[in-house]
């Protein structure tokens, strides 16, 4: 058993639903108890789709368990086929159905329906959503394309240049990995399709997003594959490469530098000249030119100088974390103080990247472990998922979302890619927005006791309700930092005598929650703070205060100082820098 | 109750597009702020609860899932030890919790994990600091609001025995705090009391129950809770539910009669708020008068709400679907529905959608899985979950309740795009 406050991924059958819902003409019969239809809402509400997901649930109840649940599966398959007349059908189980073992996949295979049936084996107690999506996509593609595979011993595929020259056409590729409920997949696909067009490459099939069964069957006619989201498409791309000899482009084009590399890789694989586009994107001029990414100039402009060395923590799926860490370091000038991912399949590349950045990687799907790490590192900005927004709220740290899991606000109406040159523009705005603006930050440094621009208050360009800033319990003030959120915590503290209670995270009696938490994290080494030093610490702006406190305590510990004075504070500052 | 027998009810089985009882956690955690809900289930359960509630950003989550792993299923790990470890970990992080609910799910029930005994065992270790209770919110056992029924039912054995020699009123079912206060005021003006609300705002402050307890149900989905309270000696006051003017008046009257409140006093206390409610309803009635309404099953609130729309807003009822028809709970409501309303219990969602499409109602009350797709087909919808999340009971909310139904129609008229 694993205590889970928030889960980064859904169960694997939700991944399978994402594949079915992404496509047209694919139906999914899911053996599942009543109530599992909640997953429809992910698509109709979070993604605001205007039709029901192509999923038929058996929705068995307790009274069915005594009877023939296998018959329930068969009638669901039959009814779904009759009603929806799909071109292919997925059949699988949810976690509860897995326990009663009706083998729905084999049952459906035995019903001799005149369409391809893909039985799904998705172990719900060991695997998760992205794995489910990847497996489903792979098995669907494999089922549809295996009959078309060239026989063993066939000559190797000709090079893209040879084929396109002979057929006198532009090179074409498949765009793999975009799905329903993927983070900004809709706009990434649009952006990358446009970018490829620009360099003379056509998109043959985009899959699974918006693809039909016929589309999948025509995938071998493309010259190569582009993997946009490895978590979903890597397995499939590898199989296509092995079976049909299609080369794979693997650079994920998130960030200006990565997009340039992506363009170069496509140029090499497709045999097209991409220098014109790269020259345009590399032009070092200070001209604001909307035809190319504005991130390089925005990031160089003096207004961004205060972003230098901002300490960021990055967490999410592996693809977005690797991209974000690189952008944070090389394109925005932040200091990456920690990275991590919940995608265990990509633990190794994340560890390699962490080593290159000189930080420790956190490979975990345990929300509490992530919270612990953020607390210890006390960053000034968290780039993470919807779940890190909870952590950031608790700690009063600015936060931006870079990866799924997401909620409805991250499926916006406006064009909001993460990929390509426009994606870099979107990212610049998104990441900088939650940070306090430069002038406000300076003034806060100088004058701490202003009645309106108070220490630790929400940056004034972000909205907060007046009641919340007055210290009341916020009703829905998502942007609040610092204030204690649970009204009954203090009372419980008095009533309870359990000694460990007083030192539990988020429970210490200090006015600044971030300080409190940071102090607890290093509790064994803390000696004590003299009152003047404590007062001096309060003069440090709140967003770096946690870090300064930790550094000072570490310094005191290492130098055998029992009582921290104002001098210790400044000695530590001189020793470590800010 | 005879009315139920005579009514032609469509009873269907097939795909059900409903929530499981775990969803009740989404509002119960707000009602009882010192309670914590620990689901023992799979990643699907965790995903459900966070998909429903995760749009809110929690500094301190008030629910979590102990996710079963393969080791638990294979019997390699002692499930009880594992559960104890999870509970300890949780309580270390949240020492302010006074009541912890272990919530059963489909997986935990299929593998027959005995949460009842786990709760008893943990209680021995943790009382009086924390009380551990358990109930099932599984989809195979419960539909949506039945999760609240199961939760309250689990608290009933722990209610203190009432020592009162005279009648006490217990209002059962989660209602908005503001509504609770309004009802308190009216009961005190009527001289009805003492009044206890169940569930309480703090889980540690449980109301007493005994032979002199009179039960007034604020929600129609609390059959099991009502039966358990009756078993502890309480008496159920049969009444329609307090939706709209008629429902609220009848509901208050049921209590007033027990306390012997005379007609004049009752009228004196209720006349002004009832008149206010009528004024508020009159403003909204044009939107709903003559409109044809179709209810998909969701919360068991459908029949009382349909009665309100029919009696007080002039709506026509095409079909009123309910996930479960509990005769004890709903008798006083059914009598008031028009004979033209088709009632259905259970669901085969595809067939019901066919009926809905054929009828082309003016307003379809349905869950969020169906709402946007039906809107895209040109049908106006009211998503039903909001009716559980909004203050809709009592006189002062009668207008708000009508407005919830009128708003989609108003919006359709406003939008020019």
Automatic annotation (TrEMBL), chain A:
Start and end residues of each Light-independent protochlorophyllide reductase subunit B-like C-terminal domain: 529-573
Positions of the Nitrogenase/oxidoreductase component domain: 12-435
Catalysed reaction equations from the record: chlorophyllide a + oxidized 2[4Fe-4S]-[ferredoxin] + 2 ADP + 2 phosphate = protochlorophyllide a + reduced 2[4Fe-4S]-[ferredoxin] + 2 ATP + 2 H2O
Entry annotated with the keyword Iron: yes
Cofactor dependence: [4Fe-4S] cluster
Details of cofactor binding: Binds 1 [4Fe-4S] cluster per heterodimer. The cluster is bound at the heterodimer interface by residues from both subunits.
Binding locations of substrate: 438-439
Entry-linked SUPFAM superfamilies: Helical backbone' metal receptor
UniProt key word Membrane: no
Region annotation Disordered: where it falls in the sequence: 459-483
InterPro entries found in the cross-reference section: ChlB/BchB/BchZ (IPR050152), LI-POR_suB-like_C (IPR013580), Nase/OxRdtase_comp1 (IPR000510), P-CP_red_C (IPR042298), Protochl_reductB (IPR005969), Protochlorophyllide_Rdtase (IPR016209)
One GO term of the biological process aspect: photosynthesis, dark reaction
Record-level Gene Ontology MF annotations: 4 iron, 4 sulfur cluster binding; ATP binding; metal ion binding; oxidoreductase activity, acting on iron-sulfur proteins as donors; oxidoreductase activity, acting on the CH-CH group of donors, iron-sulfur protein as acceptor
Known pathway: Porphyrin-containing compound metabolism; bacteriochlorophyll biosynthesis (light-independent)
EC nos: 1.3.7.7
Keyword entries, A-Z: 4Fe-4S, ATP-binding, Bacteriochlorophyll biosynthesis, Chlorophyll biosynthesis, Iron, Iron-sulfur, Metal-binding, Nucleotide-binding, Oxidoreductase, Photosynthesis
Binding residue positions for [4Fe-4S] cluster: 36
Superkingdom in the source lineage: Bacteria
Gene3D superfamilies: 1.20.89.20, Nitrogenase molybdenum iron protein domain, Proto-chlorophyllide reductase 57 kD subunit B
Active site feature: 303 (proton donor)
Top-level enzyme category: oxidoreductase
Function: Component of the dark-operative protochlorophyllide reductase (DPOR) that uses Mg-ATP and reduced ferredoxin to reduce ring D of protochlorophyllide (Pchlide) to form chlorophyllide a (Chlide). This reaction is light-independent. The NB-protein (BchN-BchB) is the catalytic component of the complex.
Stated family: Belongs to the ChlB/BchB/BchZ family.
Subunit structure: Protochlorophyllide reductase is composed of three subunits; BchL, BchN and BchB. Forms a heterotetramer of two BchB and two BchN subunits.
Protein name per UniProt: Light-independent protochlorophyllide reductase subunit B
Source organism of this protein record: Gemmatimonas groenlandica
TrEMBL record, chain B:
Biological processes annotated in GO: light-independent bacteriochlorophyll biosynthetic process; photosynthesis, dark reaction
Entry keyword Metal-binding: yes
Entry's Gene Ontology molecular function annotations: 4 iron, 4 sulfur cluster binding; ATP binding; metal ion binding; oxidoreductase activity, acting on iron-sulfur proteins as donors; oxidoreductase activity, acting on the CH-CH group of donors, iron-sulfur protein as acceptor
Keywords: 4Fe-4S, ATP-binding, Bacteriochlorophyll biosynthesis, Chlorophyll biosynthesis, Iron, Iron-sulfur, Metal-binding, Nucleotide-binding, Oxidoreductase, Photosynthesis
Iron-sulfur among keywords: yes
Residues annotated as binding [4Fe-4S] cluster: 20, 45, 106
Gene3D superfamilies: Nitrogenase molybdenum iron protein domain (3.40.50.1980)
EC number: 1.3.7.7
NCBIfam families: DPOR_bchN (TIGR01279), PRK02842.1 (NF002768)
Subunit structure: Protochlorophyllide reductase is composed of three subunits; BchL, BchN and BchB. Forms a heterotetramer of two BchB and two BchN subunits.
Function: Component of the dark-operative protochlorophyllide reductase (DPOR) that uses Mg-ATP and reduced ferredoxin to reduce ring D of protochlorophyllide (Pchlide) to form chlorophyllide a (Chlide). This reaction is light-independent. The NB-protein (BchN-BchB) is the catalytic component of the complex.
HAMAP family: ChlN_BchN
Record protein name field: Light-independent protochlorophyllide reductase subunit N
């Amino acid at each position: 058993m694993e205590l889970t406050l928030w889960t980064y991924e859904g169960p694997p059958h939700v991944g399978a639903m994402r594949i079915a819902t992404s496509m047209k003409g694919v139906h999914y019969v899911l053996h599942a108890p009543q109530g599992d239809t909640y997953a429809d809402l992910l698509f109709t509400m979070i993604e605001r789709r205007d039709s029901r997901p192509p999923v038929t649930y058996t929705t068995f109840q307790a009274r069915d368990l005594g009877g023939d649940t296998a018959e329930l599966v068969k009638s669901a398959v039959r009814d779904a086929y009759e009603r929806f007349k799909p071109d292919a059908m997925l059949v699988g189980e949810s976690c509860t159905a897995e326990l009663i073992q009706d083998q729905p996949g084999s049952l459906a295979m035995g019903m001799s329906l005149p369409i391809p049936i893909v039985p799904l084996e998705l172990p719900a107690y060991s695997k998760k959503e992205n794995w489910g999506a990847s497996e489903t996509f792979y098995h669907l593609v494999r089922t549809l394309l295996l009959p078309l595979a060239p026989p063993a011993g066939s000559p190797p595929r000709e090079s893209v240049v040879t084929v396109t020259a002979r057929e006198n056409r532009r090179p074409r590729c498949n765009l793999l990995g975009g799905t329903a409920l993927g983070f900004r997949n809709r706009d990434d696909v649009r952006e990358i399709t446009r970018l490829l067009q620009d360099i003379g490459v056509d998109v043959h099939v985009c899959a699974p997003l918006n693809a039909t069964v016929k589309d999948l069957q025509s995938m071998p006619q493309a010259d190569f594959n582009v993997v946009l989201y490895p978590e979903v498409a890597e397995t499939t791309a590898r199989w296509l490469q092995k079976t049909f000899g299609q080369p794979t482009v693997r650079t994920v084009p998130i960030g200006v530098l990565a997009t340039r590399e992506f363009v170069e890789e496509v140029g090499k694989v497709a045999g097209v000249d991409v220098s014109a586009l790269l020259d345009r994107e590399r032009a070092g001029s200070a001209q604001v030119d909307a035809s190319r990414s504005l991130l390089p100039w925005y990031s160089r402009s003096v207004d961004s100088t205060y972003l230098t060395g901002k300490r960021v923590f990055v967490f999410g799926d592996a693809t977005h974390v690797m991209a974000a860490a690189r952008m944070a370091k090389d394109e925005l000038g932040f200091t990456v103080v920690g990275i991590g991912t919940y995608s265990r399949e990509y633990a190794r590349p994340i560890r390699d990247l962490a080593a290159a950045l000189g930080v420790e990687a956190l490979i975990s799907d345990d929300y509490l472990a992530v919270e612990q790490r953020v607390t210890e590192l006390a960053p000034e900005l968290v780039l993470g998922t919807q779940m890190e927004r909870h952590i950031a709220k608790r700690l009063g740290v600015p936060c931006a979302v870079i990866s799924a899991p997401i909620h409805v606000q991250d499926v916006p109406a406006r064009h909001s890619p993460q990929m390509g040159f426009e994606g870099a523009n979107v990212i610049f705005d998104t990441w900088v927005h939650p940070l306090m603006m430069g002038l406000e930050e300076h003034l806060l440094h100088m004058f701490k006791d202003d009645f309106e621009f108070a220490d630790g208050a929400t940056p004034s360009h972000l909205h907060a309700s007046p009641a919340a800033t007055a210290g009341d319990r916020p009703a829905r003030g998502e942007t609040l930092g610092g204030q204690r959120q649970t009204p009954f915590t203090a009372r419980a503290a008095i009533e309870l005598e359990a000694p460990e209670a007083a030192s539990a995270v988020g429970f210490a009696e200090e006015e600044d929650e971030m300080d409190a938490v940071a102090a607890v994290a290093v509790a064994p080494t803390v000696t004590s703070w003299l009152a003047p030093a404590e007062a001096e610490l309060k003069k440090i702006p709140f967003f770096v205060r946690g870090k300064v406190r930790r550094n000072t305590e570490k310094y005191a510990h290492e130098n055998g100082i029992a009582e921290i004075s104002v001098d210790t504070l400044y000695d530590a500052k001189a020793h470590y820098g800010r | 109750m005879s009315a139920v027998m005579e009514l032609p009810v469509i009873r269907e089985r097939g795909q059900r597009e409903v929530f499981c009882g775990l969803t009740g956690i989404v509002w119960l955690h707000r009602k009882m702020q010192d309670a914590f809900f620990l689901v023992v289930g799979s990643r699907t359960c965790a995903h459900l609860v966070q998909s429903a509630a995760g749009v809110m950003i929690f500094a301190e989550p008030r629910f979590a899932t102990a996710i079963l792993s393969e080791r638990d299923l294979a019997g390699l790990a002692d499930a009880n030890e594992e559960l104890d470890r999870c509970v300890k970990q949780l309580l270390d992080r949240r020492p302010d919790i006074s009541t912890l609910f272990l919530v059963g799910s489909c997986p935990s029930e299929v593998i027959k994990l005995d949460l009842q005994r786990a709760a008893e065992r943990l209680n021995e270790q943790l009382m009086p600091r924390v009380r551990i209770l358990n109930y099932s919110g599984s989809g195979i056992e419960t539909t949506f609001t039945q999760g609240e029924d199961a939760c309250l039912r689990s608290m009933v054995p722990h209610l203190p025995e009432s020592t009162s020699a005279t009648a006490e009123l217990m209002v059962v079912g989660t209602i908005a705090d503001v509504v609770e206060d309004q009802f308190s005021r009216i009961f005190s003006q009527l001289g009805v009391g003492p009044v206890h609300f169940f569930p309480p705002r703090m889980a540690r402050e449980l109301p007493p129950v005994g032979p002199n307890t009179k039960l007034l149900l604020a929600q129609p989905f609390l059959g099991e809770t009502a039966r358990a309270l009756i078993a502890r000696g309480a008496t159920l006051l049969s009444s329609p539910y307090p939706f709209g003017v008629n429902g609220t008046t009848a509901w208050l009257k049921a209590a007033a009669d027990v306390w012997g409140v005379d007609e004049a006093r009752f009228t004196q206390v209720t006349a002004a708020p009832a008149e206010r409610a009528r004024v508020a309803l009159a403003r909204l009635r044009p939107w709903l008068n003559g409109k044809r309404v179709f209810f998909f099953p969701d919360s068991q609130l459908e029949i009382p709400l349909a009665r309100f729309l029919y009696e007080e807003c002039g709506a026509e009822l095409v079909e009123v679907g309910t996930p479960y028809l509990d005769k004890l709970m709903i008798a006083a409501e059914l009598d008031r529905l028009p004979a033209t309303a088709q009632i259905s219990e259970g669901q085969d969602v595809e067939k019901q959608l066919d009926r809905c499409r054929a009828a082309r109602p003016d307003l379809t009350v349905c869950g969020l899985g169906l709402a946007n797709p039906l809107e895209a087909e040109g049908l106006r919808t009211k998503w039903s979950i909001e009716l559980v999340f909004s203050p809709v009971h009592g006189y002062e909310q009668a207008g708000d309740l009508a407005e919830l139904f009128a708003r989609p129609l108003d919006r359709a008229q406003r939008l020019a795009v």
